[in-house]
Amino acid sequence: MVKLNLLLMVIAVFCAMGVVTSQHKARKMFVDLQQEESLAKQMEVEWGQLQLEQSTWAMHARIEKIATSYLQMKMPDPAKTQVITLQAPPPGARP
Amino acid sequence: MNLAATALHIRLPLWRAWVVVVLLLLWFIALLVRGLYLQVMNNDFLRQKGDARYSRVIELSAHRGMITDRRGEPLAISTPVESVWASPQDVELTADKSHRLARLLDLSQKEIEHHLLGSQKEFVYLKRGLPPDQAARVMELGIPGIFLQRGYRRYYPAGDVMAHVLGFTNVDDNGQEGMELTYQNWLAGKTGSRRVIKDRIGHIIEDVESVKTPQEGRNLALSIDRSIQYLAFRELKSAVEAHKAKAGAIVVLNARTGEILAMANLPSYNPNNRVKLDRNSTRNRSITDSFEPGSTLKPFTISAALESGKYKPGSMIETAPGYFSIGPATIHDAHPEGLLSVAQVIQKSSNVGAARIALTLPPEYMWSTFNHIGFGQVPHSGFPGEASGRLRPYKTWRPIEQATMAYGHGISVSLLQLARAYTVFANDGELKPLSMLKLDEAPAGERVFSPKTAQEMLAMLEMVVQPGGTAPRARIIGYRVAGKTGTAHKEENGGYARNKYVASFVGLAPASDPRLIVAVMIDEPEGQYYGGLVAAPVFSNVMGGALRMLSVPPDAPTTNTLLPDEGPVVKEGA
Question: Which domains are assigned to chain B?
Answer without folding.
Answer: 59-91+123-221 (3.90.1310.10), 226-549 (3.40.710.10)
